[in-house]
Records
---
Amino acid sequence: MTRSIRINSLLRRLSRGTRTEHQVESDHSAVEDNVATILASYRRVEQKINRSQRSVEYVSDFFGHPAYLAATLSFVAVWVAGNAVAQRLYGQAPDPPPYAWLQGFVTLGALLTSTVVLIKQNRMSRVEAQRAHLALQINMLAEQKVSKVIELLEELRRDLPMVKNREDPELAALQLPADPDAMMVSIEEWRSDTDPGLLIPT
């Protein structure tokens, strides 16, 4: 329901002006297809998560919630106050200052927290790397298609007798597909000249 409302809102913004009903319906279908494709990819990623990984991520989400901070501070405050009361009433506290047991619990909690967060971050890094690779492939394909369209338009222009032929070096350069390897080499050379300590990860 929420998705349909957002799509309809977007389509209303797109339909402002002189857009026809057919164009609006076409946009509606395209947007729905794109949203459905993205949601399907998210579902596939979620389905690949095993039970143990999912449990770890639930714990990681709790560690990132303000309630975890409040619980930790409350635990420390209760521990310190309890030992202070025990020291005053019985003359001996279970964990007197500097609170060795408390430090051990806090250190263990920090270790578990960092480990759980790293486990989730590793999975998210792999997912983001896959999406970045997909985006790179799509961009390269789109660039090749644009170059081909420019080439076809230039052929059409040369074949039309009523259009005067002209030389356009910039347009001729745009017809050539980009070379990713040459671009990476140029970027590496520029970055090494700008900052020799800054390297592009491979």
---
Amino acid sequence: MRFADEAIIEVVSGRGGDGCLSFKREKYIPFGGPNGGDGGDGGNVYVVSDAALNTLIDFRFTRLFRAKHGENGKGSECTGRKGPDLFIKVPVGTLVYDVDTDECLGDLVESGQPLLVAKGGAHGLGNIRFKTSTNRAPRRITRGDPSDARRLRLELQVLADVGLLGLPNAGKSTFIRSVSAARPKVADYPFTTLKPHLGVVSIEVDRSFVIADIPGLIEGAADGAGLGAQFLKHLSRTRLLLHLVDTLPPVGDPIQDILKIRQELEKYSVELAERERWLVLNKLDLLPLDEQSSHCRAIVDALDWKGRVFEISAISGKGCQELCYAIMEHITAEV
């Protein structure tokens, strides 16, 4: 299934039912008086988060959502039925914007969290409501309020504790497969992930964290090149960034690769660029054992890197356990 992280839909609430103009008609009761009931309220439209969903793809096919109208009032003081509310399910982590005003209406970060996006029209009043001591036969009613319509932009930002950064083929998907049950595609030929993957890394009972793998970035990503830019926003919710680097890329230089990613982060968001970021030097298995430490140290020294550095081989699992324990300690210390 293709990942979709943004959709535009239109929602229309239910119209309120009109009040009824009616008089009691019974044999031997010539002046029965008014008995027109009120109309029913129109149905509201809610957007509600659902942990079972992970994509907005369904909204590519269904874009218009209408709640039911309230029924009109009836005679014998019968009130019209209220229009049932309409609930639109979206993944947890969805931001809801009004397209016309660009106002953020809500941020659905918990499963089952409802957000009212279109209020149903209020019911009209029947003529029984206007009976007074001086007006025994009122012919006055009120109409129900009209529907509320608005266009919404749904924007999904995945919820994760840790986000993975890196160029295509840096080994991010292999790493998330190594430390969690997530199964993104990996292969021995160059390609990039096409959709974000979430993996739950369980350290021990009741101690786990969520890690997000986004499509690899390329130079110019912040300006719209490639797939990575449209998913960079998913990293805005993470508390820690892991910058995975191929220590022995087939083309290019690992130091320049690191600088490219840092530049794209700064162009996209200064706040994101300043978030804590750990350097993870991957694919050590491609180097002779006696050259691994010196090669990694040369990269760190050339960058004058001040943050934490980890040396791993995602495909063999070397160093991955130590990295995961360090992440768990970091996240726990922040709480």
---
Amino acid sequence: MFIDETKIEIKAGDGGNGCHSYERMKYKPKGKPDGGDGGRGGSIYLVGSKQIHTLQDVAYRHRYKAERGAHGKGKTQTGRSAEDVVISIPLGTIVYDDDTGGIILDCLDENRRALVAKGGRGGRGNAALVSRNNPNPQFCEPGKLGEEKRLRLVLKVLADVGLVGRPNAGKSTFISRISNAKPKIADYPFTTKEPHLGIVKNNSGSFGSSYVVADIPGLIEDCHKGKGMGIQFLKHIERTSVLAIMVESTSVDPLGDADILLNELSRYSELLAEKPKCYIMTKTDLLPDDEKNKIPDGWLGMSAVTGDGVDVVLREIEGVLSHQ
């Protein structure tokens, strides 16, 4: 199951209480203060991981709580500090404070640990409170409370290229041909119900050794109003460098279809609509030879089924990427 947004509650551990104690020795019924400090409560960290791709595991629990620190003991024994809790999240996750709406973390780096809830400090025992003005403290400190927050996690997948098109435009077939991604492919609309990522090896040498392509569910006119699959998945191409606008060769008005897609993108975000683009006519194997000139000027044609034109499309995408 692909989960790209969830809310969780986190509670860092409270600090252990300090100890109020006195040294006990033979013939010395009340010695000096020797109460130990309480231990620190466990903190909660988020860490980015390439090994997970959705928020499903995080959403399963909903509430995360670290243990409190152990209380201090006599003979100036400090309580044990509690273990920290580390929550792994996929790269590309933005973490919001659900109460204030502020961004706590934009997770882009693998293995980077970010403190999101600090454990409470342990209280001081009466031994630590001895001073010249108070050589015999009659009290100790309680442990401090650990931080408690409600977080909203939103995943925006990290990809270099975003595939945009109507349902059954051939996006899934294309990404399955150029990468190891295995999206569902069928001859009915909305077979893609969640984003898919594919890693493509770059053979042109113009942009790194590989890059990531994202296939998102198809867009239809007025999807910004909730029609079809809506625009809920467009956030997954906000971070992309290049958009590949894909239109079927069977379209009676390819330019009009492309304009509809661009209109829906602009309604979601003007910045998204302004990204560099490649325009691709798909399923050209369905075009008779005398209709090959149907491809608009400046567009590329390809058939992901036969492979015809796929290399040309990849070189074009890689060329645009190299200038970003």
